[in-house]
TrEMBL record:
Protein name per UniProt: PEP-CTERM sorting domain-containing protein
Organism: Luteolibacter flavescens
InterPro entries: Ice-binding_C (IPR013424)
One Pfam short name: PEP-CTERM
Record flagged with keyword Signal: yes
Tree of life domain: Bacteria
Domain Ice-binding protein C-terminal: 292-314
Signal peptide: 1-27
Keywords tagged on the record: Signal
Keyword Signal: yes
Length: 314
């Protein structure tokens, strides 16, 4: 085989590998809100604020219900004070910004919504992944999710996950059984304390500080839907694929046919400045929201590099 033929075969093999790699990389970010420099600077209410350079899949502005104390700031990124650092994707993309608790209230009608550019149909088979950076070092509760509207009524459905406050009690549970824990919430905004109502949770007193929550929502048109969440603390390692998760931090099944048209965020508590929310991402793959490539992608990339090395030597 002459050098020219060998080079051609090497290039063809490398192209085939890259094509396979490309077919695996079908990632899609549906929603991203990093709060980077939102509001143009200075502490102010989140209410009425909108696009930043890193916003994806959102339109209009944030509308805050129940308080004017859900504050933004452009001098921090949520959870970056943790040491060692939280794993996963960075909280910002070249600019600072996050949401912090200035509410001074434990009211469970406190939440914010912002319209999605495209709705998400919970009546159609699909799998979604999400991640968010949270911090509950004081007596605060917070989280993110999807909602079918903005009204605090029994007609507005939602699904989400977050961190609980110091003496939280789950729906139907014993007193303080879900304090300082990551949790799952779903139902309607006007019942069971809305997103502060705890449906499933990890062991009480498991977290009192920074955390990365990564979740998977499996939507089915024929059987019950499923939500699974993993909480990662500072210095922890994210699995390369959800199939490698041997035990989720919390899981629950639910059944809704809502058409989600809003991103949902909640944050309250009596200790002003204690809670933080940042870096909300929703995608179609685990890698979308964690930044951790799938093992097959890594192997194919290495194989493609190897073909390139052989071709250069020849």
């Amino acid at each position: 085989m002459d050098l020219k033929t060998s080079r051609s075969l090497g290039m063809a093999a490398a192209s085939a590998v890259m094509l396979a790699l490309s077919s695996q990389s079908h990632a899609t970010i549906i929603v991203q809100e990093l709060f980077d420099n939102i509001g143009g600077g200075g502490d102010k209410s989140l209410n009425g604020l909108g696009d930043t350079a890193t916003t994806v899949g959102l339109t209009g502005t944030w509308q805050v219900n129940g308080t004017n104390g859900m504050m933004i700031a452009t001098n921090f990124n949520g959870g970056t004070s943790a040491s060692p650092a939280l794993p996963g994707l960075p909280p910002g993309d070249g600019a600072l910004g996050g949401v912090w608790n200035g509410t001074g209230s434990y009211n469970t009608n406190i939440y914010a919504t912002r319209p999605l550019t495209s709705t998400i149909d919970f009546g159609a088979d699909q799998v979604l992944y999400f991640s968010v950076r949270l911090d509950n070092p004081l007596d605060t509760a917070m989280g993110i999710g999807l909602a079918s509207g903005t009204s605090a009524s029994g007609s507005t459905s939602f699904i989400g996950a977050g961190l609980s406050w110091n003496n939280a009690t789950s729906i139907g549970g014993s007193a303080n059984d879900a304090s300082n824990a990551s949790y799952i919430s779903y139902g309607t905004l006007g019942a069971d304390n809305g997103p502060y109502g705890i449906r499933a949770h990890e062991a009480k007193d498991s977290v009192n500080g920074a955390a990365l929550i990564v979740g998977r929502i499996t939507i089915s048109s024929t059987v019950a839907d499923q939500i699974d969440i993993m909480r990662y603390g500072p210095g922890s390692t994210i699995q390369a694929d959800p199939s490698l998760v041997t035990a989720w931090t919390a899981s629950d099944s639910f059944d809704t046919s809502m058409v989600a048209d809003n991103l949902l965020l909640w944050l309250n508590g009596g200790s002003s400045g204690g809670g933080q929310v940042d870096a909300i991402r929703i995608g179609t793959t685990w890698a979308d929201v964690t930044g951790v490539p799938e093992p097959g992608s890594v192997a194919l990339a290495a194989l493609a590099a190897g073909f390139g090395f052989v071709r250069r030597r020849r």
